[in-house]
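Lecture notes, unit on protein representations.

Consider one protein chain, 402 amino acids long.
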Amino acid sequence: MKVRFKEIKNKEELSEYLERLGNTPEGIKILSQKGKTYLFEIEGIDTRGANILKQDAISVGGDCAVPRSASVFKPGKWTVLLMVNERELKRLTDKLKAQPYGLKELAEKLREAFENYRREEFTLRYRGRELPLKRPVVMGILNVTPDSFSDGGKFNRVDAAVKRCEEMLEEGAKIVDVGGESTRPGSEPVPLEEELKRVIPVVEEIRKRLGDDFFISVDTYKSRVAEEAISAGADIVNDISGFRFDERMAEVVAQYRCPAVVMHIKGTPKDMQKNPYYEDVMAEIVNYFEEVFRRAEEKGVSREQLIVDPGIGFGKRIEDNLCILKRLKELKVFGRPILIGVSRKSFIGKITGVEVPEKRLAGSISAAVIGAMNGARILRVHDVRETVEALKLLSAVEEVEC
């Protein structure tokens, strides 16, 4: 006999493998639910609920890590770690429905979180256009600013912007992100009228000259800019503030029913890099998005409109940016597409020693591919052709049958 490790990516791949082994359809259905253990961190569960949860988890074949203080029935609220596979989770949530101490509500939250986490396919829709996100796609950066950190002043004339947009589409970009205000660390806000003057003519000309077979996003936190850009032909609002800098932004997104990127930022572009600090960066980001989603839905925004961006480089230390890339899958709990923007950013330069942003291609592609492997479905980049090629190779590796 021989013993080997077998790497299986997901439930579907496991089902195909079991079928090749000759298992019955019934056996495949049962066994494919046992192939992966999921870890659920549950915060704020009381002592009684924690002990019942552990007992029920063990009874279905899983387990639950409970603090010693809770195990000896010290009153309080605790954080526990539930460990179950898919089959065990189903049996556990059925049991919890009959339990007190908030466990019935926990059962629903566990099921919702699991379904969201498992979701792999998304489609952006607007004005009859559709963009499937089963595989990662590239959003090309088009800064129509004089002072962006990497390419400021290169495309702030309409003709130059249209030409660059055309190049990015030919290189494989599916979305072009037009921005009229630099949000590099330390940057000052741009007056509304100046941003409108920069952005709207470019959006109009891009749509007029290059057609309708691609998505245009507008990188702004100002509701007026977003509204006029949508009227000029844009499809997506990309708001670095998560609807917080301009309270009317959520109302505009709700009114036009367009897709919107909501990003995590700590502070503002002017002060965000002044000693940012996190106890647990991903926990804080998840909490932030829970509040963003809640407030957006109160304003009439559908959850299905939203795309989440953890805001790499926006109020983050080097270790925070690396942690986000490593734990990016935790954002899948929202069941929405994940966007990341790592292109040419300073943390890449500090790690690689490459000081000039335009020369950070290798580090940018490496970070983008790591992001795609960990769940990102939209990659916001300067170097479109090279990133598209890297993603083709990644997709080929992931899809090969072996």
